[in-house]
Amino acid sequence: MTTIDLPLLPLGRGKDLGAERGVECPGDLPAASDPDLVARAVAAKAALGDRVFVLGHHYQRDEVVQFADVMGDSFKLAKDAAARPEAEFIVFCGVHFMAESADILTSDNQSVILPDLAAGCSMADMARLAQVEDAWDALADAGVVDQVVPITYMNSSADIKAFCGRNGGAVCTSSNADVALEWAFAQKGADTKVLFFPDQHLGRNTAVLKLGYTLEDCIVWNPLLPNGGNTVAQLQAAKVILWKGHCSVHGRFSAEVVDELRATIPDVQILVHPECAHEVVLKADLVGSTEFIINTIEAAPAGSSWAIGTELNLVKRLAAAHPDKTIAFLDKTVCYCSTMNRIDLPHLVWALESLVDGVVVNEIQVDGETERYAKIALQRMLDLPGRSSAD
Ligand code: SF4
Q1: Spacing, Cα 146 to ligand 1 middle (Å)
Q2: Which side of the chain, N or C, has fewer Cβ within a 10 Å radius?
Q3: Atom 6 in ligand 1: which residue has the minimum CA distance?
């Protein structure tokens, strides 16, 4: 096993362009205290007209969401961008891997812009290409790699998606992870194994709760340990090899808080995202993607009570939009996606005003080879029957 050198980079400092982790933002940002920020964003957007299309992820701040032409999860937003070929500039208010997916799915004459390059995803960063290739070599040494189908969650970097495209695997979303796993297990007969990354929780929850595998069928691959921390016998026996990654937001929710809220809010229903830990999901009433959570609350009857385990910006917006329902947050502390929240109004104004001045800043460009193989993995997902919306 080789050791992968991963320098620690404080957010917004240092450069690691191949990663989700932050790089410096060039140029002078407007001050956050500037009282004209809203007016400046309105003016810049108006000046650009149809040349710009602003995408806003559901977990984004309100101050940015107000300027989004469309809201959605990562995969929906990438598809929305591809459906707007007349938009020369796609300003993606999300995180780095989402902007990469938009670049892959949009045409070459469209520029995808991430207003703050430090807006990465800690989960995506937990599976680096060199680490995954190292794991693949170890699985070959253990004599099992020919049985393995790699499946990556949408929340992964473009080079990881390309790895799956090159090695007979596919991408999945939190809506179609079960269909993707069923597809994977049909690829190599009864001995098929799935290598699932980067989110161990989505992989475990899907394999156990949707496909009927046992917890013993699943092992965890720790990229920092030889053989992922497993014996060769364990690798040979496993059905699902779960990469040791997690979402820093959804990983915070606990089974104890579920119990506390059930004791304090009468008839509360617990609604969580499948990136939550298995013990939390086991205690929930409903589990599903961001879109599923939104649709569930919209369809819920007046007077119903909910505790929601997903990103706080979204939960606060749902509570504000549905005052006839009791909506609580499934954590005692603040739980924003700190990296996504790096995209604030000053960064958005800076990106839009730069475009007005004819300067394309923070463009996200996936190289042609990576794009070609990532598209293969994405296409395998699109060819799956049924659901395809993302996180
Ligand atoms: S919420 Fe979690 S998975 Fe989504 S962008 Fe933030 S860290 Fe990544």
Answers
A1: 32
A2: N
A3: 337
Q: Which pTM does this prediction carry?
A: 0.90
CA of 280: how far to CAs of 8, 203, 252, 301, in Å? 31, 14, 10, 24
User: Looking at residue 74, what is its pLDDT?
Assistant: 83
Q: Under the phi-then-psi rule, with left for phi > 0, alpha for psi from -120 to 50, and beta for the rest, what region is 227?
A: left
φ and ψ at residue 172, rounded to 5 degrees? -140, 165
- Ligand 1, atom 8, residue with closest C-alpha: 121
| β-bridge partners, 287 | 272
Whether residue 281 sits in one domain with residue 188: no
With 70 as the cut, is the pLDDT of residue 14 above it? Answer: no
- Position 24 scores a pLDDT of 53
Asked if residue 144 and residue 74 are part of one domain, the reply reads no
Q: Which value, in Å, is the radius of gyration of the alpha carbons in the chain?
A: 21
Tell me whether residue 309 is in a domain: yes
From residue 66, alpha-carbon distances to 43, 70, 151, 233 in Å are 14, 10, 35, 54
Domain enclosing residue 280, as ranges: 250-329
pLDDT, residue 243, reads: 98
pLDDT of 389 above 50:
no
316 and 218 belong to one structural domain: no
Q: Count up the domains in the chain and report the number.
A: 3
Q: Which of 20, 98, 155, 290 to mutate for ligand 1's pocket (most ligand atoms within 8 Å of CB)?
A: 155
- To test the ligand 1 pocket, which listed residue (101, 126, 249) has its Cβ within 8 A of the most ligand atoms? 249
